[in-house]
Design goal:
By secondary structure, the chain is an alpha+beta fold. It contains eleven helices and 18 strands. The strands form five sheets. It has a five-stranded mixed sheet, covered by helices on one side. A hairpin with a 2-residue loop joins strand 5 and strand 6. The radius of gyration is 23 Å and the shape is globular.
């Protein structure tokens, strides 16, 4: 920046660039929240958590809420500004703001299935998650599990039902058995999930899941210890696999009520043997690399305890992958970051700066 002062008809150059040399302009981060799934409001709570942790000395931050075709930037004091979807800009304090980075924390469509990722790719705006293929694959539970099964990852016996298809109770029982879980194939794991213990439970559970997704996955029950493991990596070799959280639900399984109404005990680090802990973390790291993941993800497993040659062996069974995991103060990822001796502010800075650096090349 130069200031030109006219003295006696001559331009005298007062060079303020020296004072500003090396001083970087703050990048603007848009936290994208809301979305079109039943977890809209949960996503907004995650956005508030991320908003509280992002380093204000390095970034300007706005929350942008998406509901269908209504996209609005939260400006504070209850004020909002419409987002121009042609270039992802909005007006604030008389200025046009065009974010440099999108931190996507939508749980469900359109932020967790590749739709927003394609939009930001078209606008050349870097974002916090994996790319279109990664998001689309991880959003489809059945496709993801069948893909990873080919790499030797253990999964439950399962079957897929699409809207309009019919299936008999006998077919379900013969293929996956009882008890079984029926849940939306696409979307989060909080809504539309039912544990079926009898044949009479099956069709009402399918109808319930169909309200959340046009495809339903039916999985056999795996009895064991439910755990969750977060991980993030950067291209320069940074990041890490985080400590594991053990989930002890008061309900029969980890549903919405258990997650958000306090009916669960979350133990971080999990009460696993050292060898099982290392195996889980190694598998988490391997899956991250197999899928070419990006940003912070969380992988959920069940550890089943099975006898082999008279000895009880811990078997690691994949449940699902969360690519925009919850980010409230009590969510798994912040718990695991604290258990690792890290600060959320530093982790988010590392993720954002890594993505910005890659986008600038």
């Amino acid at each position: 920046m130069y200031i030109l002062i006219d003295i006696s008809g001559k331009n005298i150059n007062i060079n303020t660039q020296k004072r500003n040399k090396g001083k970087k302009m703050k990048k603007t981060v848009a936290i994208i929240a809301g979305g079109d799934s039943s977890e809209h409001d949960v996503s907004l709570r995650s956005a508030e958590g991320i908003n509280s942790w992002i380093d204000r000395e390095k970034f300007n931050v706005y929350i942008i809420e998406i509901t269908g075709l209504t996209w609005e930037a939260h400006l504070g004091n209850g004020k909002r500004a419409a987002v121009n979807r042609h270039d992802f800009s909005f007006e604030a304090d008389g200025q046009t703001i065009k974010p440099d980075f999108a931190y996507i924390t939508i749980h469900g469509t359109p932020g967790e299935n590749g739709i927003l990722q394609g939009y930001f790719d078209l606008l050349h705006i870097p974002y916090s998650t994996g790319d279109i293929l990664f998001e689309a694959m991880t959003f489809n539970k059945f496709a993801l599990n069948q893909y990873l099964k080919g790499f030797g990852v253990r999964i439950a016996e399962s079957m897929l039902i699409r809207k309009g298809q019919t299936v008999s109770n006998e077919d379900v029982i013969s293929r996956v058995g009882l008890p079984c879980f029926i849940k939306p194939n696409e979307g989060g794991s909080s809504f539309g999930v039912t544990k079926c213990k009898t044949a009479d439970d099956i069709h009402p559970a399918i109808e319930k899941a169909m309200h959340e997704s046009p495809e339903v996955v039916i999985e056999s029950e795996i009895v064991g210890t439910e755990i969750s493991n977060g991980v993030y990596k950067t291209k320069n070799g940074g990041g890490q696999v985080l400590p594991i959280t053990e989930v002890v639900s008061q309900d029969e399984f980890f549903d919405y009520d258990a997650k958000y109404n306090g009916k669960v005990e979350e133990i971080t680090p999990a009460r696993l043997s050292e060898s099982t802990t290392k195996r889980v973390q190694a598998l988490t790291s391997a899956i991250y690399d197999i899928l070419d993941a990006s940003g912070i993800i969380r992988i959920d497993y069940i550890i089943s305890h099975e006898k082999e040659n008279g000895e009880v062996i811990d078997k690691i069974n994949l449940l699902e992958i969360n690519t925009t995991p919850g980010m409230t103060a009590t969510s798994f990822i912040p718990q695991q970051v604290r258990a690792a001796g890290l600060e959320m502010k530093d982790v988010l800075t590392e993720v954002i700066e890594d993505k910005l650096k890659r986008a600038s090349k």
